[in-house]
Amino acid sequence: MKFRIDRDALAEAVAWTARTLPVRPPVPVLAGMHLVAEGDRLKLSAFDYEVSAQVSTDIDVEDAGTALVSGRLLAEISRSLPPHPVEVTTDGAKVMLRCGSAKFTLLTMPVEDYPTLPEMPPAAGSVGSDEFAAAVNQVAVAAGRDDTIPMLTGVRVEIEGETVTLAATDRYRLAVRELHWKPERPDFSAVALVPAKTLADTAKSLTAGAEVSIALGGTGGTGEGMIGFEGGGRRTTSRLLDGDFVKYRSLLPSEYAGLAEIQTAPFIEAVKRVSLVAERNTPVRLSFSQGEVVLEAGTGDEAQAVEALEATLEGDDIDIAFNPGFLLDGLSNIGSDIARLSFTTPTKPAVLTGKPPEEGVNPNYRYLIMPVRLSG
Fold first, then answer.
1. Which of 59, 82, 113 is a domain's end point?
2. Do 79 and 15 belong to one domain?
3. DSSP 8-state assignment for residue 108
4. Of 169, 177, 229, 265, which residue has the fewest beta carbons closer than 10 angstroms?
């Protein structure tokens, strides 16, 4: 194998592929990055039996071939190369990189022991890459981190015709986002539970292209328990999680007793300031009345903080308390300069949304948050 490649193109492709390399590979070859040079393209792959990543980039090929080298080492080397074209050659059990006056020699691993990457499921449709990344980011923040309950560490992806609904919950909050996409078939419908971390990393890394193609088996065909994403010459597949996701729609209240509106940016800053005195796992209290909301944290002999902000309120005065970290996650993701908080009682879930573009339009992002019971 012998080829030449632009230094920045190599560094970018290797860095993207190396994201999916396992930290503690179950077998040594999974720490490797698979290189295939043929035609005028270099294909780099990584796979850990759960997630696969593959990217292709332009090269000048002299001799086609394949090699398997330490992925992390290749990533560190390619990141630190001087700004010159890179020449890559194989010599027996070694791969040599020459870049300007720098020369590196890497040992290869047995290519024949490397597992075959999974096939992409059938293409289901496409969505704008920036909108998809933003939507996934809004929802993944509410996914659980506890691996003992795997289904709560995932994002539920529901596809029905031209609508994709993403939902995630850790039992203390729930985030739901709807977006439009272009399905391959107008009657396509499917449901998948995708690991939240994988989905968030993937969506963020595929914004180089204008669109992301989503590959998924439809109703009646699970696509081999796999979902695939492709965009900008990059392709990722991920195994789906097993288990039944919570019936989250029943958690969203159908009617509310009160609605408050607050400027988002000042609200975020005030929550951050007031929560400085909140001990771990203690809430920030919000007291809504006509024209203002008073934020408080700390009680009794502890440090205390109080701050008042302008707010509009429809309905009766209400005192309600939230975990400040969960509240900030929601406020940071509503994507609106006005935050709307809809509530029923101080002990039942409240729903945080941005202000919809037009009255009567349902917000496409809803963040349900469980209140903390106030003592006394």
1. 113
2. yes
3. B
4. 265
Q: State the CB neighbour count (10 A cutoff) for residue 292.
A: 14
Model confidence at 358, pLDDT cuts 50, 70, 90, reads low
Q: Report the pLDDT value the prediction gives residue 221, as an integer from 0 to 100.
A: 44
pLDDT band (50, 70, 90) for residue 359: low
**330/357 same-domain check:** yes
Residues spanned by the domain of 226? 123-249
The residue assigned the tokens 């408080």 is: 296
Backbone angles phi, psi at 122, to 5 degrees: -65, 145
Please tell me the distance from the alpha carbon of residue 36 to that of residue 55, in angstroms, as a whole number. 11
Contact 26, 65 (CB under 8 A): no
Same domain, 189 and 160: yes
AA letter at 157 = V
Say which residue the tokens 């903390």 belong to: 372
Q: Please answer whether residues 81 and 99 qualify as being in contact, where contact means their C-beta atoms are separated by less than 8 angstroms.
A: yes
Residue 317 has what pLDDT? Answer: 95
Asked if the structure places residue 375 within a domain, the reply is no
Judge whether residue 223 has pLDDT over 50.
Answer: no
CA distance 267 to 310: 9
Per-residue pLDDT of 175-205, as tens digits, reads 999 999 999 999 999 999 999 999 999 999 9
Instruction: Compute the residue count for the chain.
Output: 376
Contact 44/52 with Cβ under 8 angstroms? no
How far apart (Å, rounded) are the C-alpha atoms in residues 332 and 97? 44
Judge whether 193 lies within some domain.
Answer: yes
Say if residue 254 is exposed, middle or buried (CB neighbours under 10 Å; 0-12, 13-18, 19+): exposed
Residues 133 and 242 in one domain: yes
Q: Which of 35, 2, 17 is nearest to 72 (CA)?
A: 17
Span 301-315, average pLDDT: 92
Cα separation, 52 vs 235, whole angstroms: 8
